[in-house]
Amino acid sequence: MVAFIQPLGRLYSISHCLKSLVIKSNFDTQTAYKKIRSILEIAKSSASTRALMEFDNPPPSDKAKETDDDFAIVLELSEDDLHFEKKKKLLQNKGFNPKEQVYLNSSSGPDWISTTLKVMLQIARIIQLDEVELYFGEDDACSSVEYYSPRNEVEALNSILLLLDISLSSVTCMQMNVLQELREAIIGMIRDFGEKNSVKTKILENHSCGKEECLLQWGENNGIRTRLQIAYVKGAGRGAIARENLNVGDIAVEIPVSTVISEELIRESNMFHILEKIDGISSETMLLLWSMKEKHNYNSKFKIYFNTLPKEFNTGLSFGIEAIMALDGTMLLEEIVQAKQHLQTQYDSLFPTLCNDHPDIFPWEVYTWEQFLWACELWYSNSMQVMFPDGKLRTCLIPIAGFLNHSIYPHILHYGKVDPATNSLKFCLSRPCSEGEQCFLSYGNFSSSHLLTFYGFLPQGDNPYDVIPMDFEAEQEDCTEGNPRLDRTTHMVRGTWLSNNHNIFYYGLPPPLLDYLRRAKNPMLQTKSLLQSNLENEMEVLGDLLSTFDGMMENLGETDPNDRENASWDVRLAEEFKDQQRRIVSSVLNSCHKGLRLVENELRKCMNEDTRD
């Protein structure tokens, strides 16, 4: 059986972004609670909502607090969290419990808001950690981490905002004032964070957007509501620009399901009865083949949408030989070669058979390899996974929303679940977006190598998901047969400039990697103390890392910026990626060298003390 391609699409959280509640003097508690309950029914699948609060019925006021000016909000790490044990340990190391009560007392002092939010934010950050952030997180109690990543910070702030909005539905008037003060402070923190990390938008006025304007008009005629316009942006191609100031919770664009390209369309086509008989073919592959033909259909409902698509997507899948060779020394070279070979295999398994057997439905001129690669790049770079009311996750193309570009500082984090009340997709803001600013969303927690291969760009800024994996094989004794066996384990490194701790025993390097290497050298060493045996072990560990990354840097070779001026787009992109890899490797080498100097200094002190004794 042939394994057919499954376009990855944009992976993202399946949750609904809660629109900010406006608290008025005549606040109706029960009405507001019903509104929040309906919103939570949509957001129930969100890990962040589950992690912070399970809320079925409005609690009686005497259970929610002790006095009107001294009551608590509970932040809880869900036991269903995939990384529950690791996050629990990290919380405990910071002095918190998996279910932590944060008392709110406005009479405790003038700084009660900042003090309270600091505690809440520390807990929320840990609850919102993903796998990569958790791996690189510093688990020592003394570490003062401001934030783990831009994504994590916005998620943590918004999860607290959601919790406050829920709590506002079941409190006394005095408590409402306290919660409202906290809410306004959180909104201010979200706004300040966005302003510090905003990306300047320079619109290229000399580019015509006639096709895009036609698509916006088509969308309006078909029920799409948007507060965005499309423009050409320097360094980003086309992007979605805010027409007005948008605040947290505002809907930037709302897309009716009737305008979404999903598998229902293939079922209505004349090729479905042929494709469904192919063993193992996925609905994503069927849609890919449908789109190859539909873009030539002048009577298509989506003709205006297809007209806005580029003739070439210029992703890593279109890299030529020279660009691929420019990636020599990186793992991306092999990844792109394998991906292209995989697509060629999939194409060969479908064609020429379909064209020969059904030439009227699958004409040769439409189903060439070049057109197939174009369609693959379309679905890889523009598709989104959408959760429909029937609970099924489908890969779709979403007109207009496809102009929202990716950023490591996104405005929109949660999207992709159909609101059953309106039968539409809503793209809500998790941080404000000013008029004239490009509105970004997050395609997912992807490395630059993934974004280059499937989307054709490298993100601006320091991508926290740019990691270099390191595979280790350790010989372990098989307890059942007494024979040695190899255990494979994977660790990773990233740019050490992202770390806050460059002290001895840390060096800006990931603690799990260092602990693994220490145990491999000497399983009996359990503590990070300034003993001679520990320090000698550190010297060996850092020396091994130096040797490994010296080899990596040598394989990457040296860069020559002058060669890029006349280079093709793919060669320039390959060289830019390689520069990123050099920067990461260089930072690891620098950290190892500095670490060795720290250890050597402590070792000399230790040996001098032994001499005096």
From TrEMBL:
Keyword hit for Kinase: no
Keywords, in A-Z order: Methyltransferase, S-adenosyl-L-methionine, Transferase
One MF term in the entry's GO annotations: protein-lysine N-methyltransferase activity
Family annotation (Gene3D superfamilies): Rubisco LSMT, substrate-binding domain (3.90.1420.10), set domain protein methyltransferase, domain 1 (3.90.1410.10)
GO BP, sorted A to Z: methylation
Domain SET residue range list: 226-444
Keyword S-adenosyl-L-methionine assigned: yes
Organism taxonomic ancestry: Eukaryota, Viridiplantae, Streptophyta, Embryophyta, Tracheophyta
Protein name: SET domain-containing protein
